[in-house]
Design a protein that fits this description.
The protein has about 1150 residues and is α+β, with helices and mostly antiparallel strands. About 20% of the residues lie in helices and about 30% in strands. Strands 13, 18, 21, 22, 23, 24, 25 and 28 form an eight-stranded mixed β-sheet that branches. Strands 1, 3, 4, 5, 6 and 9 form a six-stranded antiparallel β-sheet that branches. The N terminus is likely disordered.
Length: about 1150
């Protein structure tokens, strides 16, 4: 799954935020052709296949690189620049760059890979290649910008790449390192796929099949393949009890059983849509990439809970659970504390570690608790101590999560650690006489592990692609990359996934370009090791007998149905589909889901017959199907008229019985008919009465159809048909119609002709004086009959005439209203008209709510994103001009049928004239006391905010001066002036805090200052992490740390023993803490500032270093969640 904005260059198009092309393969339910045998997989040899190794090495010849120095960048005014052609994989290529973007006014640099000399290629040429484009940082190669893509190049799409490869300001900045001596350096690595790759069959090549990517589910696919190939895990999933009546889309165990079964016995890649539906995920989740480590924990926790009280209870723990011993050991007294904890996986540091062993050393590193950080030992007070963790035991399957993603507190962002990090094929955790083991560990268990899986992440912190290298049979490595599975040499699975730097491949023969060292953005992210002594028990044989009979039967039926559809598709050219409509279909459809014309031909009986079948043979098939004698059958062809209505138009002649069904051609009217080599034929079957037989159609006769409309019940139904003379008038039919409708004799009838319904309904009253010929009636025309209501009666009827009712049907639309704060709750569905205005929609919904909402203006709507089925970020504003329902349901040119709503506490027009602010009120200890939401006119100032807030506070604050602060990441960024306007305040980004102004801060002299005081922790690399609630402290020019310590302790209310452990430091941005001593002068350490801002890069604040008692992320940080911090949830 590529997350880059990859597409073919076009100077006329704008930036793209989605991958191009935006096409998805159509998937069917049932993704595998099942094998009736019990083999787990096609056998994989226990030794490395030399041919596979050789093939993998030969693939390198299809890969190469080229470096291009782009000179005279700023002075050359060409819109686009091409490199010289270069050969890779036997094909010519060029790099194409738009230094100023591929459209006027662009702020980005665009870069593409182009097929050189494409105009000289053969007709219909095509080649597929994956490539990595790099803008080389010529001063610091670690800052080189790289983007990867893959594309099927052709005459119609001969270049592919990135419209927004990089921001121009980042590239052209004087000291950025990209533009040196007015020269940019581009590098491309290209891997050309062999022609046979296009028809690659994973099952035949490896014995395994892949998983289909739903858009961004590669992370899930790599994890599922890893878990599936742990045979003990797969067997446990098979043994989970499921019910025959369950559906995979609602049962996680059944969906997982189905997925694993198809992986084991299927021949083609498997869909995961039922599985994600069983998680309770919607379409949006398929396009949202999550963290594979988090999904692993959430999925295993869910399965472990569902395995309770079954025969596989504890299977997850048996596989993955190990135990650590956390200890604290005093140095000077005889006191030791131990605490045993379990783990399902281990998170190992990558930064600062060369390999897995270094990470375990760091994991078990002993920390000294001394000085201000002494340990409080029960009965001994504060003591110097050693604190650490050792392993009591390791699990049979050891999952190691590598900490490739970390939060950089200095840069306030997530970063990916691409450092080189080695991991062995065999991992010995008994190394150095078991130095990682606790004293009480069972040392009779040999902790020697063999590498089973390597999950790889390719890309950066904002997205990328996951795939997995797995060794199911202990020798041959396989690469599971979504739908494809390949054999791979061990070097590619291990050494090439260490990360670090890599040299670009040598240039093609005859070309020269410098060799570059580039950061490798593809590296191991998760490792799975299996204990060697447990290998046979974990990798046991799993057969069909491990799967419940009802699951096998269901999946076998799915496979058979899929095979049937496949054969039908393969043989489609030999058959014709004949859809036959009868009067019975008219009766069933008209008035339910069919209101115009007579029938929906897609919902009638279909016959699949060979094209060489004669009409006589087909009539015999119909006779056997419905018991209608051949002589009682007459077929009519349907015609699509120029006005888009579809009616029976032409009867098949009696002498056509010997014609083949493939020769039947529907008549065309005005060029709208269905002609040519039809694979589908639509027919109407007229059935003759058994006693009389079929009516002989005269040249001056018409076949008319009748519908009945009842204005009292607002029901439309099929009434019947008859043959009428062209010279007849409507009065000639009145007795027949009265009897057919079972009306009393003499009742006045209204008869109208249904003419068309696109683009609007046209129903005209039939002139009783005209003959049917003069009225231009013909075969298949429809007359709508109703009893004519009196003028008084019509006033009480909603739709007194058929035209009124059909006009309503034409414009009606069912809209589903979902609560914005609970979108998973069942929607409220209302039948509305496309002509309804915003006000009418609000009124209808307000009346439908329970209890009804008296004021519809208190409703606020949010449109639905048609691609994700989620509410759009911004709610709809109250319309200033007329807005109708179709406008409300539009999303980027597509129409949805869902609106989200919320009930406000005041009318929406009034709310939109106000500014809403969320304010947290803090007490004397800087702690949060209450949350308040204020609404004020948008032209208000901070003074008005504080006045309104004071009304909500206890009476003690009636005369206390208040102030409002702007907080972010536990730092004070601004103290508002009372005259500041409120309209520009963004409380979604900033955290607003109000507090009483302490007495000693009401008047600050020139010798004093208000110092910013923040809480922080510090890691081993001296990275500062702020937390908690910051505050302001008044200090004088003569204050020392010893002077202000008691004031801080008193303000925060910290106990003596705890406060004694705290450290104090002067902290400047991007610098390590400067720790203070009691006699240090505050004025000498801190720059005095009268600014209400916490300045910027050079600001210095007083830091309080101590343990964060609440280490979870503070609430006002949540608006900056990184790409990999979106929580994974399984709802079922």
């Amino acid at each position: 799954m590529a997350t880059n904005d990859v597409h073919m260059q076009d100077p006329s198009e704008g930036d793209q935020t989605e991958p191009e092309p935006l096409m998805e393969a159509v998937e069917e339910n049932g993704d595998a052709n099942m094998d009736a045998g019990n083999d787990v997989h096609a056998p994989i040899t226990e030794t490395v296949d030399p041919a596979a190794e050789k093939q993998a090495e030969e693939e390198d010849s299809m890969e190469g690189s080229h470096t291009w120095d782009i000179h005279n960048v700023t002075h050359n005014k060409d819109l686009k620049r091409f490199s010289e052609p270069f050969m890779i994989g036997g094909y010519p290529w060029r790099i194409l760059v738009f230094p100023r973007g591929n459209r006027a006014g662009s702020a980005v640099l665009s870069a593409y890979l182009d097929c050189g000399e494409s105009q000289t290629q053969p007709i219909n040429w095509t080649r597929r290649a994956s490539f990595k484009l790099s803008m080389v940082n010529q001063r610091d190669h670690t800052k080189t910008i790289c983007k990867e893509a893959a594309h099927q190049f052709s005459a119609q799409a001969n270049d592919w790449g990135f419209t927004a490869f990089a921001n121009q300001q980042d590239i052209f900045a004087p000291n950025a390192g990209f533009l040196v001596n007015d020269t940019l350096r581009m590098n491309v690595v290209v891997r050309v796929e062999r022609p046979e790759d296009l028809y690659y069959d994973s099952k035949k090549s490896t014995g395994y099949v892949g998983l289909k990517n739903q858009g961004a589910t590669c992370y899930m696919n790599s994890l599922l393949q890893t878990l599936y190939n742990i045979n003990y895990f797969r067997q446990a999933v098979y043994h989970m009890p499921t019910q025959e009546e369950e559906m995979p889309s609602t049962s996680i165990p059944l969906a997982l059983q189905s997925t694993f079964y198809k992986l084991q016995f299927g021949d083609t890649s498997v869909s995961t849509k039922d599985l994600t539906k069983s998680f309770g995920w919607d379409t949006m989740e398929g396009f949202m990439q999550h963290d594979v480590q988090e999904l692993n924990r959430v999925l295993c926790d869910n399965l472990e809970e569902k395995m309770k009280n079954t025969k596989v209870q504890g299977a997850i723990s048996h596989l993955f659970e190990g135990h650590t011993v956390n200890f604290v050991e005093c140095i000077n007294v005889d006191y030791k504390s131990n605490r045993k904890e379990s783990y399902m996986d281990l998170q190992l540091d990558v930064k600062g570690c060369k390999n897995v062993y270094d990470s375990f050393v760091k994991y078990t590193e002993v920390e000294m608790l001394d000085g201000q950080n002494q340990y409080k030992a029960e009965g001994h007070g504060l003591q110097d101590a050693r604190k650490g963790v050792l392993f009591d035991d390791f699990p049979p399957v050891l999952q190691l999560q590598l900490k490739r993603f970390e939060y950089d507190f200095q840069r306030d962002m997530m970063v990916k650690i691409n450092d080189r990090y080695e991991f062995p094929d065999e991992l010995d955790l008994d190394v150095d006489d078991g130095k990682f083991l606790a004293p009480g560990a069972d040392r009779s268990v040999r902790n020697l592990y063999k590498l089973h899986s390597v999950l790889v992440h390719s890309g950066g912190v904002h997205g990328g692609h996951y795939y997995a290298y797995i060794r199911p049979a202990s020798k041959q490595w396989l690469k599971f990359d979504d739908e494809k599975v390949y054999k791979e040499p061990s070097k590619r699975a291990l050494d090439e996934q260490f990360g670090g730097e890599d040299e670009t491949p040598p240039p093609a023969p005859g070309f020269t370009s410098p060799t570059l060292k580039l950061t490798k953005y593809s590296n191991a992210y998760m490792l799975v090791y299996v204990r060697e002594s447990s290998w046979k028990d974990i990798m046991l044989d799993v057969s069909q007998n491990d799967i419940a009979e009802h699951v096998r039967s269901r999946l076998k039926a799915e496979a058979e149905e899929k095979e049937r559809r496949r054969k039908e598709k393969m043989e489609a050219h030999l058959y014709t589909i004949i859809k036959v409509a009868r009067d019975e279909d008219f009766k069933n459809q008209i008035g339910t889901h069919q209101f115009f014309d007579l029938v929906d031909n897609d919902k009638v009986e279909s016959f699949r017959v060979k094209k060489q079948t004669t009409l006589a043979e087909f009539k015999q098939m119909v006779a056997e199907k419905w018991g209608i004698a051949v002589e009682q059958q007459r077929f009519w062809m349907w015609a699509t008229r120029q006005n888009r209505s579809v009616r029976p138009s032409t009867p098949l002649a009696p002498n056509s019985d010997e014609n083949r069904v493939c020769d039947i051609r529907e008549p065309a009217a005005g060029g709208f008919g269905r002609q040519g080599n039809q694979s589908e034929v639509r027919l109407y079957l007229e059935e003759g009465p058994q006693a009389k037989g079929l009516h002989t159609i005269e040249r001056d006769e018409l076949l008319l159809f009748f519908k009945l409309y009842d204005p009292h019940t607002q029901k439309l139904s099929f009434l019947g048909k008859c043959f009428a003379k062209k010279i007849n008038t409507l009065p000639d039919l009145m007795p027949f119609l009265t009897k057919l409708a079972k009306f009393p004799e003499g009742i006045p009838l209204e008869v109208t002709e249904e003419i068309k319904f696109e683009p609007k309904v046209m129903i005209d009253k039939v002139d009783q004086r005209q003959t049917f010929h003069r009225a231009q009636l013909e075969h298949g025309d429809i007359l709508v009959v109703q009893a004519l209501p009196s003028p008084e009666e019509a006033k009480s009827l909603k739709y007194p005439l058929a035209k009124d009712y059909l006009d309503y049907v034409k414009w009606r639309i069912t809209v589903h209203f979902k609560k914005l704060d609970n979108p998973k709750e069942e929607a409220l569905s209302l039948e509305l008209s496309s002509k309804d205005t915003y006000e009418e929609v609000s009124r209808r919904l307000a009346a439908a709510l329970r209890p009804p909402l008296e004021d519809p203006l208190k409703l606020r709507f949010t449109q639905q994103n048609n691609y994700t089925q989620q509410p759009k970020p911004q709610a709809m504003r109250f319309p200033t001009q007329e807005q109708d329902l179709p406008d409300m349901l539009q999303h980027f040119g597509q129409t949805t049928d869902t609106l989200f709503y919320e009930v406000l506490d005041l009318p929406l027009p009034q709310l939109e004239r106000l500014k809403t602010l969320k304010i947290a009120f803090h007490g004397e200890k800087a702690e949060e006391v209450a949350q308040h939401q204020l609404r004020l006119p948008k032209d208000s100032c901070i003074e008005h905010v504080l006045e309104e807030l004071r009304k909500l506070l206890p009476a003690d604050y009636a005369s206390t001066p208040l102030r409002l602060l702007q907080i972010y990441w536990s730092k004070i960024y601004k103290v508002f002036d009372e005259k500041d306007d409120i309209e520009g305040i963004n409380d979604q980004y900033w955290h607003l805090r109000a507090e009483a102004v302490p007495e000693d801060q009401l008047s600050v002299s020139e010798q004093d200052q208000l110092m910013h005081v923040y809480h922080f922790t510090c890691d081993q690399q001296s990275h500062v992490n702020n937390f908690g609630d910051p505050f302001l402290l008044r200090v004088t020019d003569t204050d020392t740390l010893a002077d202000i310590r008691p004031r801080i302790q008193q303000k925060l209310g910290i106990a003596d023993e705890e406060f004694a452990k705290w450290k104090f430091a002067a902290i400047a941005s991007l610098r390590p803490p400067d720790y203070l001593n009691d006699d240090d002068s505050i004025a000498s350490k801190f720059v005095k500032s009268t600014s209400t801002y916490s300045s910027g890069q050079d600001s210095i604040y007083l830091g309080l270093e101590h343990t964060d008692a609440h280490p979870h992320r503070h609430r006002h940080h949540n608006n900056r969640l990184s790409h990999y911090e979106r929580p994974v949830k399984i709802y079922n």
